[in-house]
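Request:
You are asked to prepare a plain-text protein record giving the amino acid sequence and the backbone structure tokens, at your earliest convenience.
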Amino acid sequence: PAGWREAVVAAAGALQAGGLVAVPTDTVYGVACLAQDSAAVRGIYSLKGRNGEKPLAICLGDVEQLYRYCHVDVPDELLRDLLPGPVTLVLRRSEELNKDLNPFTSLVGVRIPNHPFMRDLARACSGPLALTSANISSQGSTLTVSEFQDLWPQLSLIIDGGPIGDIQSPECRLGSTVVDLSVAGKFSIIRPGCALTPTVEILRQKYGLVPESS
């Protein structure tokens, strides 16, 4: 679409300058900053009024990059069956990741949204993006930019990708399915999200992983 390249360049520039940018994803609207920029990460927490113990996910453009920031104990094919898509995979973090990002945990959630703008934006930035939903903590997820108007004054840039999904459908506001794959051979669902059934089917039937509680 017209203006796509300019929007990617403008958003990447705002992020590189330490800003917070509202972005469309394949599930809900998000707010992104550079994960390796500690001041920007602090800015996301204050923007959302978020408890400092709640971790932020990282967002990448391609599966290959995941190996740089995480220790992976699952087959590459499994990663590619789930990503890009509406799933956050929780893995053990590597030393490459900013120590100020989620310093209280050795794990990190990774998102590769199935959204061409987000993937282009992640590729245009040198390191991972930190990504969280565009809303005040504990309030509902947002599917249009007008739904998070109260955050606008604190954002450097807002990318309006139009309504995401069906704004009348509660299912569309569930956000990504969050699954912990940090223990070899097992999985545990941290948040059911919008893609629970197909995700569990792939993990159990195709790869023989078992729920961690069992």
Notes: The chain has one domain: 4-211.
